[in-house]
Design brief:
By secondary structure, this protein is α+β, with helices and mostly antiparallel strands. Helices cover about 35% and strands about 25% of the residues. The mean pLDDT is about 80.
């Protein structure tokens, strides 16, 4: 009888050990924390490439101007943003490119005054992507 109890105890211990080992192997590591406010590298080419798929007015390509990335309060927190000025046709309009973790997250119309004080520069990277007539 004692021998049978020992076998049952060993079997139970082995099953319990296997269950614990299986549980540990199923545990996932937490995802790495991604820094949301990374200064976008090569932002001009990133934006030009993105816009080349969205713009249709040739004047927008040729007359666009761009500001440098700045960290600004936007939505629920701070993000790097880049202001764009389009002077195509008869209207001027401003857009904001919002970055998250160094990548373009969205492009939206700029609220009044949102890009105030931006030092706009020519945007030859976009002009180089002007579509053929």
């Amino acid at each position: 009888m004692i021998e049978g109890a020992m076998i049952n105890a060993r079997t139970a211990a082995a099953v319990l050990l296997a269950a614990v080992a299986a549980g540990c192997s199923l545990m996932q590591k937490p995802p790495p924390i991604t820094e949301t406010n990374v200064l976008p590298s090569d932002y001009k080419n990133q934006i030009a490439s993105f816009l080349s798929t969205a713009l249709i007015d040739r004047a927008d390509f040729l007359n666009a101007q761009i500001g440098a990335p700045v960290l600004k309060e936007y939505g629920a927190g701070e993000h790097y943003v880049v202001c764009l000025l389009f002077a195509g046709g008869t209207q001027h309009r401003e857009k904001i490119v919002i970055y998250l973790a160094g990548n373009i997250n969205q492009v939206v119309d700029a609220d009044a005054g949102r890009c105030a004080g931006t030092d706009y520069q020519p945007f030859p990277e976009l002009a180089a992507m002007v579509p053929r007539k």
